[in-house]
Design brief:
123 residues, alpha+beta, 2 domains, 5-stranded antiparallel beta sheet, flat
């Protein structure tokens, strides 16, 4: 598959590295977070169709995909906080975890009830 066929928000592999498409010509590296210009014709490989935040039609989001993407994002944020533990005070990390929890709650409250209720059922 070519880069131009990847949906914005979809994860893919390029030159052996994990990326997420951010615009028609840029992607964010999965580990470093750095932006990279990628030719539209560049060959890429999808990482996971089921985690793509955009439905195949490109017109609406699937509730399960949104909930799964939020879970992945939240987990990665918590991992990053854990990685900072040796260098940052526990109070600062606790404060960041609180802010992250509030941000997640605000995000979830903005979702349609169908998605919110599914997430609450998992808790």
């Amino acid at each position: 598959m070519k880069f131009h066929e990847v949906l914005i928000g979809q994860r893919f592999e390029f030159e052996g590295e994990d990326y997420t498409k951010k615009s028609p010509v840029t992607a964010t590296h999965g580990v470093s977070g750095r932006q990279k210009f990628i030719r539209r014709s560049a060959p890429v490989k999808p990482v996971s169709e089921e985690l793509s935040p955009i439905s195949r039609s490109g017109t609406c989001l699937d509730a399960d995909i949104v909930a799964a993407a939020l879970d992945v994002f939240h987990s990665r944020c918590l991992e990053c906080l854990g990685d900072l533990a040796p260098e940052v005070s526990e109070a600062s990390i606790a404060n960041a975890r609180e802010k992250l929890a509030r941000g997640r709650a605000e995000f979830e409250s903005a979702l349609p009830p169908r998605i919110r209720s599914r997430d609450a059922a998992r808790s």
